[in-house]
Design a protein that fits this description.
Elements lengths: L15 E10 L2 E11 L4 E5 L6 H8 L7 E6 L2 E2 L11 H8 L2 E4 L11 H11 L5 H14 L15 H13 L5 E5 L7 H17 L3 E4 L3 H7 L2 E6 L2 E6 L1 H6 L4 H24 L1
Helix pairs in contact: 3-4, 3-5, 4-5, 5-6
Length: about 280
């Protein structure tokens, strides 16, 4: 199944353009003049300390949060604002949001629907696609994330890792141009993290266009095509994973990576002493 098909005309155009986006909550500036582009097939990992604005940036990209200033474009079409400079009607904004999938920290599955029904609901109800077509695609997606045997199970019977994999399948069922991940493993027990990251690695290899907010440094190093490092609401550094992790250009990025290396060593030592 093709997840991220593209025409020759679209190959050179960014899927996403973020230009000068800023956002404040009262006197607290959370995003300060953020700009970057994401091209088709990119996996961009947003890294940075807690409170650096990563999750707010994702929410501004799909206008779950309205930016105070700046512009966001999806495949050349401005999100949230019409060509005449007027804020979009909710219906038009909802239409654009269907082109951007989002995987949340806490799954957000519908508890009264089975796994298969969760994956099928939005394509049938929102996109008005034929039910038989959506069912076939949903079953293929559940096979892709390793959950064929859970198709008729309700979310309450799933582990956290299984719920998150359903969330990924549900986002993919909308055939998005861009997939956003907001710390998709942060709510999982450590032993369940790997199964979710394996699915995400597979999507990256398949050429799905993704922006991933994560604290999983190994995943970022292995799967990302580009790292965007944020601190205090600003883009401090943009680099390839190899450059960022082996020779970060800024002192702030160096401090960040040293802290994570130190924390990782402490966890390993703690596990060894407790065994």
């Amino acid at each position: 199944m093709t997840i991220n098909g593209t025409s020759t005309a679209d190959q050179g155009r960014p899927v996403l353009t973020v230009a000068g986006v800023s956002k404040a909550f009262g006197s607290l500036v959370v995003l300060d003049d953020i700009s970057f582009r994401v091209h088709r097939g990119d996996t961009v990992c947003l890294l940075g300390p807690s409170g650096s604005g990563k999750s707010t940036l994702l929410r501004c990209i799909n206008w779950l949060e309205r930016p105070d200033s700046g512009e966001v474009y999806l495949s050349g079409e401005r999100i949230g604002v019409t060509a005449g400079g007027v804020v979009m009607h909710d219906r038009d904004l909802s239409r654009m949001r269907t082109r951007i999938g989002m995987v949340f920290q806490h799954f957000a599955l519908w508890p009264h629907l089975t796994v298969l029904q969760n994956v099928m609901e939005a394509p049938v109800q929102v996109q008005r696609r034929p039910k038989a077509e959506v069912r076939a695609e949903a079953e293929a997606l559940l096979a892709k994330v390793g959950l064929t045997d859970k198709r008729d199970v309700f979310p309450a019977k799933l582990s956290g890792g299984q719920k998150q994999r359903v969330g990924i399948a549900r986002a993919l069922a909308m055939r998005p141009e861009l997939l956003l991940f907001d710390e998709p493993t942060s709510a999982l027990d450590p032993e369940l993290v790997g199964e979710v990251l394996a699915v995400m690695r597979g999507l990256a290899q398949d050429g799905m266009t993704m922006i991933v907010v994560t604290h999983e440094m190994a995943f970022a190093r292995e799967a990302a095509s580009r790292i965007v490092f944020l601190d205090r609401g600003r883009v401090v550094e943009t680099a390839t994973p190899n450059a960022f992790f082996t020779a970060p250009a800024t002192e702030r990025a160096q401090q960040f990576l040293l802290r994570y290396a130190s924390n990782g060593a402490q966890k390993v030592a703690g596990s060894a002493s407790g065994s």
